[in-house]
Design brief:
Shape: flat
Number of helices: 9
Low-confidence stretches: 294-309
Number of domains: 2
Helix content: 40-55%
Order of helices and strands: EEEEEEHEEHHHHHHHH
Number of strands: 8
Mean pLDDT: 85
CATH architecture of the largest domain: Up-down Bundle
Strand content: 5-15%
Strand order of the largest sheet: 1-5-7-8
Distance between the termini: 12 Å
CATH superfamily of the largest domain: CRISPR-associated endonuclease Cas1, C-terminal domain
Structural class: alpha/beta
CATH class of the largest domain: Mainly Alpha
Radius of gyration: 22 Å
Amino acid sequence: MIAPPRPIPIKDRSSILFVEKGQLDVLDGAFVVVDKNGVRTHIPVGGLACLMLEPGARISHAAVALAGRVGCLLVWVGEGGVRLYSAGQPGGARADRLLHQARLALDPDARLNVVRKMYDMRFGEPAPQRRSVDQLRGIEGARVKRLYEVLASQYGVTWKGRRYDPGNWDAADLANRCLSQATASLYGLAEAAILAAGYAPAIGFLHSGKPQSFVYDVADVFKFETVVPIAFRVVGEAQRGKEPAASDPVGEVRRGCRDSFRRSGLLNTLIPSIEEMLAAGGLDPPPAPDEAQPIAIPEVPSGDVGHRG
């Protein structure tokens, strides 16, 4: 008899797929997106970690239920993933990864190992030996300050330091407003990846005490090779009067981040990178319960192996 299918593990799935315009539905047992002309495009939802729904996408109840059963996270985002508005059930109702993350964060040695791995991934070199999490945070802060200065000089930007008030957007100078927009874009993308993998945005390692602590941890690893150069480039162009940066610098940063995410395929590396960070903690994750992630459409065998009646 044919063995019933099993859900694909997160690590073996394609990371993320965007749907910009169309109606998502389940038709004839298949997860499809239907365009304005009625053309169906099949989406192998069981092989995806996350489905990003951009403006113009609509989804039926049947499609939401199917995505939940196969463990594909649905995330409602802005254009290109620049904003994260809402998310479905993270990780397909899996608690094993969440418990593993909490255990790593509560174990002092494991937490330090994870922070050291993040440092290594961010700067391309091992973290200094015999340093605590607080000490590594201080070292990282000094290096980040220097990186801002180098990039500002490279793009000809007047730079007075990273200063901004979240409650008073207009009080910040142009460079800081553009950097805030750039990092917000990356935070949305990182949070989507964290939720898709079944982890908690609030349980951080280098950062702690905020609803998005782990988001900051993950995003900071990639920040200076992705969105920060875009922000400084746009600010430099705006200061020289070059359009369209001069007329709408913050919007140009947002669009630049969107295009960069699509072009670089950053989403394809985020989830494996999260797994790599947490694996450095040195603790084995708990086994998944047998009842986790039930299959979407149970296959009832009929006929024999060579002929499906």
